[in-house]
Amino acid sequence: MINAIIYCENEFGKVDGKVANGLIRHSEKYRILGVIDSSKAGLDAGEHLSGSKNGIPIFQNLDEALGNLSNTQIHFIYGIAPNSTFLSLSQRNVILSAMERGLNIVNGLPELLTEDLEFSQKATEFEVKIYDIRKAPNRQNLHHFTGKINDVKTPVITILGTDCAVGKRTTSVKLVEALKEEGINAIFIATGQTGILQGAKYGVAIDVLSSGFATGEVEHAILRAHGERQPDVIIVEGQGALSHPAYTSSSAILKGSRPDAVIIQHAHKRKFHCDYPQFRLPSLLSEINLIETFMPTEVIAIALNHEGMKEDELENVIREYESNYTLPTTDVLKQGCSDLFKALFGKFPNLEQVALSYNNACQPQD
Amino acid sequence: MINAIIYCENEFGKVDGKVANGLIRHSEKYRILGVIDSSKAGLDAGEHLSGSKNGIPIFQNLDEALGNLSNTQIHFIYGIAPNSTFLSLSQRNVILSAMERGLNIVNGLPELLTEDLEFSQKATEFEVKIYDIRKAPNRQNLHHFTGKINDVKTPVITILGTDCAVGKRTTSVKLVEALKEEGINAIFIATGQTGILQGAKYGVAIDVLSSGFATGEVEHAILRAHGERQPDVIIVEGQGALSHPAYTSSSAILKGSRPDAVIIQHAHKRKFHCDYPQFRLPSLLSEINLIETFMPTEVIAIALNHEGMKEDELENVIREYESNYTLPTTDVLKQGCSDLFKALFGKFPNLEQVALSYNNACQPQD
Prior knowledge:
The structure is a homodimer of 366-residue chains.
Chain A: E1 2-7, H1 18-25, E2 30-36, H2 45-50, E3 58-59, H3 62-68, E4 75-78, H4 89-100, E5 104-107, H5 117-125, E6 130-132, E7 156-161, H6 168-181, E8 186-190, H7 193-197, E9 202-203, H8 211-229, E10 233-237, H9 249-257, E11 261-267, H10 284-294, E12 299-305, H11 311-325, E13 329-330, H12 332-335, H13 338-347, H14 349-362
Helix pairs in contact in A: 8-9, 13-14
């Protein structure tokens, strides 16, 4: 594991802090030593995010963080994912200042710091490295769509949603963890920078790829995982929404993964797109209809995001969705994945057999 | 106009020769002096393509072409658009040899020759220029989607289709020409390399752009045309198909143009995608349903591609479509645009008023 602190000034726990939020929830590659967000300084990151402490402190600023951490070789993860095209001058200065203190920079933005003269000179001067997570592979190493995805007989489940930053990746990661606990060899295919930062072995940040390659790289990641790991099930992270006013990533992910089933993520209380507030969110019904019209697949479960809801309201809303849509419905952060299992085992009985065999084998013997 | 010859060995008139075919049909920027395709050497390009001569000869090879042309400053347009990622060695040699003879290179491939050392050195050595038509603008000059397209009250019509290379651009260009003849200020928005090579003033080859920018650049081209030209109607070229197994361009074009109406292009006899023959084409009905589910718009007319059909069969098929879909149906290459006018004037009566005023003003006065 690589030691790291995450910079997320003013945004930790919010929509634009989704890179930081994701890494606090799940991180296989980086050992997160702290978060920098002066607006929440002194709080515990886990408690602020989900109500249960995880011992990761939130610092006032970089000085305080470095003063409190004895480790060396610390990576500085830029944990804000804004919608703007370029960093502001003050945001640039935050990163440059971290470099001057000897920290390596992990950058998930579409803006590539390795291709920016000021950053590359600073890296040379202070002997630090810059990792541009979203740098697209060279064209020579990119894959066109081939159609071989149709030969994959292992169930492919894609987690789509009705908006950006709505919980698709969180549900994907939680579901993969829960499946593994049942002895099911589930593989996660990341399609965004946070999933890759979290340590996903398969996938690429597809939003920097052009039309043909985005689809081809999703297919290729699945084919590679399928060939190398013989999984029982493949869980593909979605991006944005198929109906999103601006982004085509969901379209590429659906075409590249050609899923046997879809789980749809939705925030019951969100009425407008988080990054395009002039556009209303689709109804869940219309999004399900669009997905099933777009691709011969089936939405088999609903994963809710509880933002803006209290526990008891969430309970009622879940029951309402289950009744209206006749689909298993859950909030994986509050209620775990058992309802998603119900949907998966109903559609793919072999998966249930794998879990049963595993659990039988794990029983204490007389 | 710039003097040019088009290289289209073995592919002129076929699907992969679509850049050459398009330029022979319509060219506002280049004066096409000849086509190179040894398999059709000696024929007239117009006659081979559409049955009526246009005086553009087809040559055996570059030597023959240059021997027959007295003009200097000739541009060499690479007129094949294959599905493969890179040029083969022999294809590279054809272009290098043209450069050695002093020809400037016009390249519509996604492979950028200006970024290829061998080509850029050859260009310096022989003092010729390379124009990479599909080179994406710098990120600094690209536009994110803003949603301002919703403020455009001028009718926006997008020409979509059920496959690549099915006639969307041809229908778009013919329709714009026909509208202009009626005094209607119609603006064409190109979204692919051929439209831009043909001289379109607005648009960008979107298939080299990533998710957010593809949508944003389509929107931006429309906003710019709308602001600069006060058009009566805006015609947007589609790419691929919304249901295409690999490409997401149609998705970006629909999101960026948010059309008031769609005209759909279809090849009645084509059963499989031309570049993915393992995938069946959608039925026209399912594609129309998908488009209207994807975006709040309306398919108002069908433009057929007559490939594989004789005149009388085409007539019958057109009548069959009109009856089955209750939509005006035409093949613009064989029957012109009057049926598309019927659809447009029905949906946008103001356009008919513009045409009536123009034609009244053009009547000879007593």
